[in-house]
Design a protein that fits this description.
elongated; 3-stranded mixed sheet; about 25% helix; binds dinuclear copper ion; about 180 residues; alpha+beta; 6-stranded mixed sheet; 3 helices
Length: about 180
């Protein structure tokens, strides 16, 4: 027996709901797959690093003393960049790295949360006081990355910038250590 106009039979409702549920679950599954594939293929990794550090004594000794900041070469030929973020500057405000070379960034903050992000790379991390943020990457081509602080950190946030200068390997090898460290002329 047909129902009055505008009334949908319960069986039809149940079928429609099942279809939409299936559509939603497949969308969720698809998006999860994209996240996982992107993480694996682009070597993007969430900030799982939980290396603690005392933000009040950074300047007194250890890895992040002033003379240790900037780009350093490791025994295996890779590079390590150490930076300290504070309101409202990255120290140093420019570092030089070589193209085609593994680069490890190690950052920490002395005051509040800042953000370090290099566009079109896998480098994107929060810089949290009390912890060392570590990101590994490799730049294929020379170029200059100008990077604004990527986490609102106070009234001077918009003026907080740093630069990463990627130069050809030969040029990097010929650079004086001080220039490598802070792009000094
Ligand atoms: Cu530092 Cu925003």
């Amino acid at each position: 027996m047909p129902l009055p106009d505008g009334i949908v039979p319960a069986t039809v409702v149940a079928r429609t709901e099942k279809r939409w549920l299936l559509a939603m679950v497949s969308m969720l599954g698809f998006m999860m797959a994209v996240v996982v594939a992107n993480g694996i293929l682009n070597a993007a990794h969430p900030p799982t690093n939980v290396e603690p550090i005392d933000p009040t004594t950074l300047h007194l000794g250890g890895e992040f003393v002033e003379g240790n900041l900037g780009t350093a070469r490791e025994a295996d030929g890779s590079l390590t960049v150490r930076m300290v973020a504070d309101q409202y500057a990255f120290v140093p405000d420019c570092v030089e790295v070589a193209a085609g070379t593994p680069v490890k960034f190690r950052l920490t903050s002395i005051d509040v949360v800042h953000g370090f992000l290099l566009p079109a790379t896998n480098v994107n991390t929060m810089v949290v006081p009390g912890f060392v943020a570590e990101v590994r990457t490799r730049f294929d081509r020379p170029g200059m990355y100008r990077m604004p602080c990527n986490e609102f950190c106070g009234p001077g946030h918009h003026g907080m910038w740093t630069r990463v200068s990627v130069v050809p390997k030969e040029q990097f090898n010929a650079s004086a250590p001080i220039r490598r460290a802070v792009c000094a002329k």
